[in-house]
Design brief:
This protein is of the alpha+beta class. The chain folds into two domains: 214 residues, Lambda Exonuclease, Chain A, CATH 3.90.320; 83 residues, no CATH class. The protein has eight helices and 13 strands. The strands form four sheets. The chain has a five-stranded mixed sheet, sandwiched between helices. A three-stranded antiparallel sheet has the order 1-3-4. Helix 5 packs across helix 6. The longest helix is centred in the last third of the chain and has 33 residues. It comes from marine sediment metagenome. This is YqaJ viral recombinase domain-containing protein. InterPro entries: PDDEXK-like_dom_sf, Restrct_endonuc-II-like, YqaJ_viral_recombinase.
């Protein structure tokens, strides 16, 4: 029977950290394995081919904010936070976890709970409820917590969430351990590892969210000269050309429809149709989006593509 491994993040260089993560399914990957979110192929590509997401401003922002939110949360809730670790399950060798932190009752004491830290923007606020309510934590985060509890053998997991734009302290959610679901989840992970990693069966590529990174990792440079398109490639090229033309036509038509509706709505607050409220109102440089649930007004950038998604209400872009 394999032994549990727990290695502090500070003891691993970045390359070693990434190498460890390729030896099993991590907590941030389990939701894709279970089909709760897209990206199953991305998990496969990261493990087999070492494909990593390109570093960008959003990822860097998340890394920097995580440290600040953790300290903020610890002060507000009087928590003793231990540093992040990489860990492997004691009896399921391909089930791993890299919690954002661990909680102890005293400084530098033994862990009694795990910690995940989340920075949530207005576009994702609707997925989170009030602490203590049923289904208050999104399923993808719940299974991440279950994975951490299984690997670390801890009874509970805390989630510290900073909701952008609300002007409040981080909110604490608590996820309890669920042994029955945990056992089924681990069984699914081990079966997935055997089928896709050991036997080499690729998951459906349509689930990929980072196919460009996968292609770049597989074929980093040209090694063959220009050639004629194959018989298999020709129908793909023809369909792509047709799809590109249709996409442009649809985009132009949608733009025209939006403009027509905005002109028709005029100076009204909005219109109601098919059980939805539709608006295009702007105030100065900000758009007002009214939340039916709380009756609050949230200011978001005027650019329509950044409008806040409100249940039951659509904003014309």
């Amino acid at each position: 029977m394999p032994e549990q491994e727990i290695i502090p993040r500070s003891e691993l260089e970045d390359a070693d950290w990434l190498a460890k993560r390729r030896t099993g399914v991590g907590g941030s990957q389990i939701a894709a394995i279970l089909g709760l979110v897209p990206g199953e192929f991305d998990v496969f590509a990261s493990i087999v081919h070492g494909v990593q997401m390109k570093d960008n401003a959003a990822l860097r922002r998340g890394r920097f904010l995580e440290a600040g939110i953790t300290r903020w949360y610890a002060e507000v809730y009087d928590r003793h936070v231990l540093p992040s670790v990489w860990a492997r399950h004691a009896s399921a060798p391909h089930v791993c976890a890299t919690p954002d932190g661990l909680l102890s009752e005293v400084p530098d004491g033994p862990p009694v709970a795990g910690l995940e830290v989340k920075d949530v923007g207005p576009h994702a606020r609707h997925a989170w409820g009030t602490p203590g309510e049923e289904n208050a934590v999104p399923a993808r985060v719940v299974v991440q917590c279950w994975q951490g509890m299984a690997v670390m053998n801890l009874p509970v997991w805390h989630v510290a969430v900073f909701f952008e734009g609300e002007g409040d302290d981080p909110v604490e959610y608590i996820v309890p351990r669920e042994p029955e679901f945990e056992a089924r989840m681990i069984e699914k992970e081990e079966a997935w590892w055997t089928h896709h990693i050991i036997m080499g069966v690729e998951p459906d590529r349509s689930t990929a969210r980072h196919m460009d990174e996968y292609i770049a990792a597989r074929f980093p440079r040209e090694t063959e000269p220009l050639r004629e398109a194959t018989e298999a490639e020709i129908p793909l090229l023809e369909e792509l050309r047709y799809g590109t033309r249709v996409k442009k036509a649809v985009k132009d038509r949608v733009k025209a429809l939006r403009s027509a509706l905005k002109l028709s709505i005029g100076n009204a607050e909005g219109i109601e149709w098919d059980g939805q409220r539709i608006t295009c109102r702007t105030v100065g440089e900000a758009e007002i989006a009214y939340t039916r649930k709380a009756g609050r007004q949230l200011r978001v950038p005027q650019k329509w593509s950044k409008a806040l998604p409100v249940p039951g209400r659509k904003e014309l872009e």
